[in-house]
Design a protein that fits this description.
The protein has about 260 residues and is an alpha+beta fold. Helix content is about 20%, strand content about 30%. It has three helices and 15 strands. The strands form three sheets. Strands 1, 3, 4, 8, 11, 12, 13 and 15 form an eight-stranded antiparallel sheet that branches. The longest helix has about 35 residues. It is globular.
Length: about 260
C-alpha cells in the first residue's frame, strides 16, 4: 500500500513538472514572439517604405541635421541608446552651451512628420516647421517657422499660459484636448500639412486643426506674440527644427513622408 502511494505520488509530481515545463515553454515562446513582432525604434517597416516614409534620424548619428545658421550640430546634442537628446548640463542664458536649435538638411512643403519625444521635469522644447533658414535676416528659427509645443505641463511655468501647453500650436491655437504624458514619459507626435491644411496629433489624438495662409491665419498671427515678425508663418516650404530651450529633451523615431 505504501509503495503504491509512493508510485502514485511520483507519477503525479512528474506529470505536474512536465505540465509546468510546457507552460513555461509556451510563456517563453509567447514572449519571444512578442519581442520579434514589436517594432524597433528608428527603423521603417516594409509598408512604411512603400508608402514613402524616410527616417530623419538613424538612431546612431546626427547625419541629416545641422545647427541653425548652417553650422555643424553642437556637442550638447548627443546620441545614446537610440535617442537624439539635448544634454542641458551646461546652460548658457536660456539655451545650452554648444547646443542651439537644430534643423533638417532638407526642406519640405507638403509633408507628414512623426516622432516621439520626452521632456525632462519642468522642461521646455518644441518642434518647429516651415523654417526659412536665413540667420542673418532672422535671428531665430521661430521668426519664420511655427511650433508644436513640447512641455512638461505639470512643472514648467509656460503651462500657465493659454496656447503654450504641450501639443499647442504655440501662441496661436490651444489643443482641443489634453493627451500629453507626464515628464520623462514618451509621447507620440505627428504634424501633417497638405496644401495649407494643418493637423497636429499627440498620442494618437487630433489636437489642433487649422488652415494656413488664409485671412483667418493672418488674424491669428496678428493676435499673437509673432505680430511684430512680418515673415512669420508665411513660408510654404522650409526646414524642420528641434528647439534648444535650455532643458534636456529626447527625440526618437523621427520620420517623414512627402505628400
Amino acid at each position: 500500500m505504501f509503495k503504491n502511494v509512493l508510485i502514485a505520488c511520483s507519477s503525479a509530481v512528474l506529470f505536474a513538472c512536465n505540465n509546468e515545463n510546457k507552460g513555461t515553454e509556451k510563456s517563453e515562446g509567447d514572449s519571444a514572439t512578442a519581442t520579434i513582432s514589436a517594432p524597433m525604434n528608428n527603423t521603417l517597416t516594409d509598408d512604411e517604405k512603400k508608402e514613402g516614409w524616410e527616417l530623419l534620424f538613424d538612431g546612431a548619428t546626427t547625419n541629416g541635421w545641422h545647427r541653425y545658421g548652417n553650422t555643424p550640430v553642437g556637442a550638447a546634442w548627443k546620441v545614446a541608446d537610440g535617442n537624439l537628446f539635448l544634454d542641458a548640463a551646461n546652460k548658457k542664458d536660456w539655451q545650452v552651451r554648444d547646443g542651439g536649435d537644430i534643423l533638417t538638411d532638407n526642406e519640405y512643403d507638403n509633408f507628414d512628420l512623426k516622432l516621439d519625444w520626452k521632456i525632462d521635469t519642468s522642461g521646455n522644447s518644441g518642434i518647429i516647421f516651415y523654417i526659412f533658414e536665413d540667420s542673418v535676416k532672422y535671428q531665430w528659427p521661430w521668426y519664420t517657422g511655427m511650433e508644436m509645443q513640447v512641455l512638461d505641463n505639470n512643472g514648467h511655468p509656460d503651462a500657465k499660459i493659454i496656447k503654450h501647453r504641450a501639443g499647442d500650436l504655440y501662441d496661436l491655437i490651444s489643443s482641443s484636448k489634453e493627451t500629453v504624458k507626464p515628464a520623462l514619459e514618451w509621447n507620440m507626435a505627428e504634424i501633417k500639412c497638405l496644401n495649407g491644411k494643418l493637423d497636429l496629433f499627440l498620442n494618437g489624438e487630433n489636437v489642433v486643426s487649422t488652415t494656413l495662409w488664409d485671412d483667418n491665419w493672418k488674424k491669428l498671427i496678428a493676435g499673437s506674440k509673432f505680430k511684430s515678425m512680418p515673415d512669420f508663418g508665411t513660408y510654404k516650404k522650409g526646414r524642420i527644427g528641434l528647439q534648444d530651450h535650455g532643458n534636456t529633451v529626447w527625440y526618437r523615431n523621427i520620420k517623414i513622408r512627402k505628400l
